[in-house]
Design a protein that fits this description.
With 400 residues, the protein is α/β, with parallel strands linked by helices. Helix content is 40%, strand content 11%. It has 13 helices and eight strands. Strands 1-8-7-6-5-3-4-2 form an eight-stranded mixed beta sheet, with helices on both faces.
């Protein structure tokens, strides 16, 4: 160990005007598994039909552009409305069927909230799911280690000495925290008198929106003296920073209880893969023949796009780098190299300097009164969740 220092549909295809959303029946114990399976199937079919309509529109745009043969330096593709009529018919048919599927889904119970597919789907197109009012869209909630809903008041009552909240990363849920090493750490926390909870949220939403929602959730904590510890992995660390920033700006009371904030492999200055993806997508804008394909790259969620710069506030605001000054902060980075020189890709997804909040421009480095930075070798991004060195460091650092 070394110390340092989609209503908006997929692909922007037009969707027929929707009727006002009716209240959807909730999932209850005793509901037939066949009915729940059908509810999930209808929800997936709705999303697939919207996507099919959007893809048909993309093909129509490409056809119309090629038919008109614009010059390479004319950047705009020909609108899909100039394509042959069969394209218009197929597009509108898909979207009409999508509307019917959505109406049917409102008569069925909400599909089960758990599952790897659901978490991944929300990470990739979560903001679109919310805009489509899809029952597949996840909300924000507290969970226990078994994935069951946890009441904020019950969480507060379970911790006489403090409260700890784990915040997962992109396309994940509370499920990925559960492993032998993490469970041992949680036992230690509970033996010391801490109440423990895990956050589940839609990682496809903008990080600023999730930060605001987390701040609002924490503001519902009953009055008490227990100090608060927030531990975030990857995007989760950015959500914690966003929530803290929002709370300080709005004068929320919960932030005064924040004692420890931990960021495990969080891309404070951006994630390498999203930077590469963004650059590749921009290359498609060079000609009118390829520009329409940018819509495929733009399917990726707002949460993913925020990872490019580590953005924790809306785009019209300057990204802040000051941490809550009265709290202690621990930034942990891993790299896949086997020596102190590290690896140029960091942990495979986040470079070391980004995870440690360091920057060549001093004002863009994360700063507060008490900041500890720790780097581990031979450690990948997902392994941060189950590495014994990480949890040993956490226990030592959190000691009074």
């Amino acid at each position: 160990m070394t110390e340092s220092r989609l209503p908006v549909p997929v692909l922007n295809a037009p969707l027929p005007e929707q009727p006002p959303a009716a209240s959807r029946p909730s999932t209850r114990e005793g509901t037939s598994p066949v009915v729940l399976l059908a509810a999930g199937g209808v929800a997936v079919a709705h999303l697939g039909l919207v996507a099919a309509g959007g893809i048909t529109r993309l093909v129509a745009t490409t056809h119309a552009t090629i038919a008109r043969s614009p010059l390479l330096w004319k950047k705009e593709p020909t609108p899909a409305e100039h394509a042959p009529l069969p394209y218009q018919f197929v597009t509108r048919s898909f979207l009409w069927l999508a509307q019917m599927a959505q109406r049917l889904s409102r008569t069925l119970p909400a599909p089960p909230e758990h599952g790897i597919f659901r978490s991944a789907l929300n990470g990739v197109v979560g903001h679109t799911l919310a805009e489509l009012d899809s029952p597949l869209a996840q909300g924000m909630s507290l969970r226990d280690e078994f994935g069951e809903p946890l009441d904020v008041a019950a969480w507060a009552r379970s911790g006489r000495r403090g409260l700890v909240l784990f915040v997962h990363g992109l396309c994940l849920s509370e499920r990925e925290w559960q492993n032998h090493e993490h469970e041992g750490f949680v036992r230690e926390l509970r033996e010391f008198g801490h109440g423990v909870a895990w956050l589940r949220y839609n990682t496809g939403h903008a990080i600023a929106d999730n930060g605001t929602a987390l701040s609002d959730l924490l503001e519902t904590l009953p009055a008490g003296e227990q100090p608060l510890t927030l531990i975030g992995h990857s995007m989760g660390g950015l959500v914690i920073r966003s929530a803290s920033y929002h709370a300080e700006i709005r004068g929320a009371g919960w932030v005064k209880r924040l004692q420890h904030a931990v960021y495990l492999g969080s891309p404070h200055h951006g994630a390498t893969m999203e930077k590469i993806g963004h650059a590749a997508n921009r290359l498609l804008a060079l000609t009118p023949y390829t520009k329409s394909f940018m819509s495929l790259g733009n399917i990726r969620s707002r949460g993913i796009r925020d990872l490019r710069e580590g953005r924790i506030v809306p785009e019209h605001k300057a990204n802040p780098y000051r941490l809550v000054n009265h709290a202690r902060h621990l930034l942990i980075a891993g790299h896949m190299g086997r020596d102190r020189q590290g690896h140029f890709m960091g942990d495979g997804l986040v470079q070391v300097r980004s995870a440690l909040g360091q920057h060549v421009e001093a004002h863009r480095a994360l700063h507060a009164k008490d900041v500890t930075r720790v780097e581990f070798e031979s450690l990948g991004h997902m392994s941060l969740l189950k590495d014994e060195r990480v949890y040993s460091t956490l226990l030592e650092w959190m000691k009074p």
